[in-house]
Design brief:
The protein is an alpha/beta fold. 56% of the residues lie in helices and 14% in strands. The protein has one domain. The longest helix is centred in the C-terminal third of the chain and has 29 residues.
Amino acid sequence: MTEIGKINKPEAEKYKNRKKIYFVRNLYLPKNATDKYKIIFDRYWKEVEEHLLKIEAAGKVSKIFCESLYKSGEEARRVLKSMNAALEQIIQKKIEEGAELSPLEDKEIFGSFVDWNNCMMVIRTQTVYDTIQEQLRNVVKERFKHIKSVLENNIGEAEAAMLIMRGEDRDMLELPDDIELFMISPPAYDDLMQFMRDRDEGKEFWRS
């Protein structure tokens, strides 16, 4: 597995015939976000699109996988639009260029993952916490095992896939050894993280 932020033409040629994943950190726009957050958020997705165009020198995106999606086709795009309209626009362009949006999640496993996470938000006792934490760990393992299998079985030789997930989830995902990983990490991402770390503006961001 190779992590690359920038790629030039000689490097691109080296990866042309390999399986590739272009990883995009998924960022959402909360309803109570400040104007400054919205500005950086919009810039982030514009820069993601620009970086994708550059990195496609190593291979055009032919498959698209996104967290939370266990549906395909028009139904999947409707779900995407409701979650993240900026991302949906990028994916729609890739589909128009010939890419295929494919399910990443298993419906039952992902449903359990969401349910156990929701349970963690209302716990009052340590005993219940320990029980739910164990169940959550088990379903997380199941989820990432399924995702690895999907990527392994659906990315062909010399193909490039775009994978959209939360950054912390990528850290838990074990990719097949024959897939090269390219990180899409535009400057706006660092700006957004700095914004979130800023104490004063962080309070503004979380204020409803």
